[in-house]
Amino acid sequence: MLRLAVTTLRYRTAAFLAIFVAVLLGGALLSAAGGLLETGLRLNAPPQRLAAAPIVVTGDPAYHPPNGSGAAPFPERPRLDPTLTKKLANTPGVAQAVPDRSFPAILTTHLTNADGTGTALAGHGWSSAPLTPYELTNGRAPRTGEIVLDERLADTANPGDRLAVTVGGESRAYTLAGIARAQHRVDVPGVFFADSDVPAGIDAIGLFPANGTSPRDLAKRLDLPTGVKAYTGDDRGVAEFQGIATSLPLIIMSGVFGGMVAVVMALVVSATIGLSVRQRRRELALLRASGATPRQVAKMVIAETMLVGLLGLVLGLLGGRIAGTWIFGLLADGGVVPPQLRFDQGPLPFVGAALLTFAVLRVTVGFAAGRAARIRPIQALAEAAVPNVALSRIRIVIGLVFAGATVAIALSTPFMGPTNAAAIGGPAGLTGSIAVAILAPLVIQRALVPRITRLVEKRGTSGVLAVINLRVRAVQFAAILVPITIATAIAIGNIYSQTTQQKAAVDAFTGNLSADVVVTSTSGGIPPSLTAAARSVPGVTTVSELVRSKGWIEEPYDKSHTSDAWPLLGLSGPVYTGKIKKGSLDDLTGESIALPPGTAKKLKVDVGSQIGVRLGDNALVKVKVVALVEGPSGYESLLLPAQLLAAHTTTGLPSQLLLKTNGTKLDLPAWPGTTAGGRELLGEGLDTGLGVDAWIGYLLAAIAVAYTAIASVNTIAVAVLNRRREFGLQRLTGSTRREVSRMLTLEGLLIAGLGLAAGLITAAFTVLPIAMATRGWPIPSGSVWVLAGWIAVVLLLVLPTTAITGRIAMRSKPMDALNSPVG
């Protein structure tokens, strides 16, 4: 049977090519997902600027809920107690302890050019240069009012030149004291200041062990305060680069991504294999009639499919590294993962991808082969002439179960909060797609209502034949319908779900803030001098600084926000428009806070109570509740004084300035690194918390597009090329090539339209409930061009492929086609 299986490959090239490509793509994507999982578990980020220090001590970058599970990255960089440097320096085995402080700096070419333009850099104290190390190539170390530049920034500048550097939002003149060179790769060039000019605070401490002392052993016996950790090896990158705190986002992404790839691959491969086997009913029936046992027929079908599938799997695994690196690069460019994080893809992701792909392939071909082997020869010959469209009762029940699950998910999603809406409503697209895939022949038959068929039949004989073919060959056309439906449901559902949630989050945030003019800083923050200057501008009636961060309520403990943080909003003026239920925002000064009424009730606190809030830099502050303020349901924030919150952010400054005016045109003073605009700037840089979710959605949409392109082209080619005898008979009975081609075009339009309709209906079970949960009405947000573009993609896949393969199928003479060994 193995020899016979190999022989059949010559005559079923199109069908086996479809299986080969589907498995190849699935193997590549699954190994890429495995690489993302391994990267998330390892979190290796080789240090750059801190590479010379064998041990780096810094604050724990991840928040660990006291009464919950999981972890979340702190949005701000935790600070260390300055006295820790001296304590560590006196530890036995430590030769030197070097403190480091990083802060934003904007370098402009010369003072005459100090208009706010420049390159975003990182400022450091010169004493931290040995942590890289940096070595002077020209000039000397800086004194007060002087700087040393990375040689990549110096350009034509020489020691003694006067340069402008914006630090803390203020542009100041510095004298260039020297030029230094990093001894290895450092992505962000540094500007080094005299230690006396460095802002207070310490981010990290680099430790150099004494001779003969193991860094790992020394790191284990360091006496460190709670919330402070020591890192060695590649783990030191956690101390240098923000965002490398927890593996959860990458683990979630890789799990959803890999799971969806496996499901889509199983549906597409099973549809392709099923189509290939059904088209060989007559051949398999003749084998049975000539003495082959059911087991031998099944073994032959399994052997030939597994042979092609394993070849595709091997090539897919070879391409897995390329796919993984490309996807990881997209995530890094999109800000989901730090670009300094190293993509790790060892042997385990490939082994896991191989086993999972093999299992999917073996199970799907096993079902198809079992059906082909069990059918009686006479029944197989009959179905080869007139295909049986009836579905088994078990298959109908399974399909209805998935359809019922889709409806149940859709009905429950609108009652969820915005945070849980996507997690609850997202699977509806998948369960709906599975339901359509299982019931696809029935869907095609039920969709051919008289109104549609009459419209097609008006096209003449070609239209009549197209309708008849769709009814009779519903099982074969289902193999084309399935990938189009799945891709449409996943692509449209995920894209519009993300755009809807994003728009709802931005609208909820900006809708609660009143401002006519928004000033945004690109130089590290809004300095106090700019706030004071804005208050003196004629026509400005209200000025408020705006600070954004995240935090957790710990005293009393808020169980509703464990690993997911509360949005924190820092204000210094009356610009918040939420309804005040109790207290007053005029008292939001010093160490105070305003809570949502529901949260206050749940925590059993009221105006005048004191609570403990863990801020974004891991500082626990005690604040007094001064007001209970309502916000948009599901998008509530905790309100704090701007100065209090800004002191616990990485920059130490507000990010925006909100101005209310009396309607007159403002003459705002020019300020380095600032941009003034309208309310549209309020949403600029807003962290809606959808970063990972959005990329999961977009990656799934990309998978859908890729599989649709491959599966549709393959299945159409297989289905059309297998109809050579039918086309030959039509031409012998009077039909012209043009009439047969018109029939194929109408079939393609109908099946593409049905696939799009089924996919859009399935996507609606995801998008509309999510819109209800996030926006309050079932109207999604997003460009209509996304839908129009997708429809164009599907038509451009189906129609040209149908036309080209139809031309190939009719290339031979009619009599030769009737005698063809295949089709």
TrEMBL record:
Membrane-related topology note: Multi-pass membrane protein
ABC3 transporter permease C-terminal domain residues: 256-375, 699-802
Domain of life of the native organism: Bacteria
The keyword Cell membrane appears for this protein: yes
UniProt keyword annotations, A-Z: Cell membrane, Membrane, Transmembrane, Transmembrane helix
Subcellular locations according to the entry: Cell membrane
InterPro entries xref list: ABC3_permease_C, Macrolide_Exporter_MacB
Pfam families, per database record: FtsX
Residue ranges of the TM segments: 250-277, 305-328, 348-373, 394-415, 421-444, 477-496, 695-722, 743-772, 784-805
Family: Belongs to the ABC-4 integral membrane protein family.
Name this polypeptide is given: ABC transporter permease
Organism phylogeny: Bacteria, Bacillati, Actinomycetota, Actinomycetes, Propionibacteriales
